[in-house]
Recover the amino acids of this structure.
């Protein structure tokens, strides 16, 4: 869907997007759901579905393949990864992730939207999925998640306290020290 639009509006030689051609594109929540699914897939499985350049732009060859065969090599990769979450011995959170990702990465945009019609907005429906609600997640897993959250919160608090102390030291520092820091910065840069 979007791959075809981007391909049609991108100059093959420069890689620049022609905004006049791009203006024909009609945005859809279905495309947003797909994009969210691509990011969530990468987070859950550690696998990027597309090769990108240093600016995170999808490589032209991948864009071409996706535009011509939306159910091609990516669908095989997606199905292989998601099947690991559907095994009997898979963890509950991986099973919930696989179920959600099957819906988000549905190739047909209209079917993708249908999966998430039960709330005011599709994103509300996504957030009510078991993956985000923790339904059927055992207490041990929830305990690990809570412990990790507490660890990160404590780390952020320590960083904030250090930043506050450094800022206080900076604003109370004398003019001579400020000049010295500026000179040091100039020498280093």
């Amino acid at each position: 869907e979007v791959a075809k639009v981007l391909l049609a509006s991108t100059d093959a030689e420069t890689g620049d997007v022609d905004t006049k051609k791009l203006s024909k594109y009609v945005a859809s929540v279905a495309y947003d759901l797909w994009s969210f699914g691509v990011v969530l897939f990468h987070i859950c499985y550690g696998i990027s579905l597309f090769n990108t350049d240093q600016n995170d732009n999808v490589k032209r060859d991948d864009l071409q393949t996706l535009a011509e065969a939306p159910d091609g090599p990516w669908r095989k990769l997606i199905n292989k990864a998601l099947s690991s979450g559907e095994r009997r011995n898979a963890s509950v959170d991986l099973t919930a992730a696989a179920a959600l990702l099957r819906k988000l990465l549905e190739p047909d945009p209209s079917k993708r939207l249908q999966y998430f019609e039960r709330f005011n907005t599709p994103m509300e429906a996504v957030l009510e999925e078991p993956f985000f609600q923790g339904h059927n997640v055992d207490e041990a897993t929830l305990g690990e998640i809570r412990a990790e959250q507490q660890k990160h919160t404590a780390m952020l608090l320590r960083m904030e306290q250090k930043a506050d102390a450094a800022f206080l030291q900076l604003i109370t520092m004398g003019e001579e020290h400020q000049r010295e820091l500026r000179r040091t910065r100039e020498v280093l840069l």
